[in-house]
Amino acid sequence: MQATQQVSQVKRTRSYVEEVFRQIEQKPDIMDIIILNKNGNPIKTTMEKQIAIEFAGLYEILKEKVQLGLQKIDPDDELLMLRVRTKANEVLITPDGKITVMVVQNAQDRIQL
C-alpha cells in the first residue's frame, strides 16, 4: 500500500505524461498507447480520437467489474494492473488515481523452442 501512495503522490504534469508516453513508445511490439486523465478521458494517444474515447469507455466498464470482483475477495485490495491477452494482442492497463496508462502490444512469444 505504501508504494501505491508514493506513486499517487507524484505530480502528473504534462511533461510527465509526455515522458511516460515516449518511454512506452520506444518498447518493441507496441501497437497503441492511451493515457487517460483521472476522469477517464484520453489526454495522449496513438489512436484516432473517437476510437480512443470508445476504448476508454470500455475500459471503465471492465474496471468497474474487476473492482467489484476484487471487493468480494478482499475489500481492502485495489487494482494495480490489469493484463488481458488474446492470441494476437495483449492489453496492459495501469491505473494510479491520477492517470491510467493503457498499452496494446503484439502478444507474440519471444521464446523459440
Automatic annotation (TrEMBL):
Stretches assigned to the Roadblock/LAMTOR2 domain: 17-105
InterPro entries in alphabetical order: Roadblock/LAMTOR2_dom
Family according to the record: Belongs to the GAMAD family.
Pfam families hit by this protein: Robl_LC7 (PF03259)
PANTHER family in alphabetical order: DYNEIN LIGHT CHAIN ROADBLOCK (PTHR10779)
Protein name, entry field: Dynein light chain roadblock-type 2
UniProt source species: Ceratitis capitata
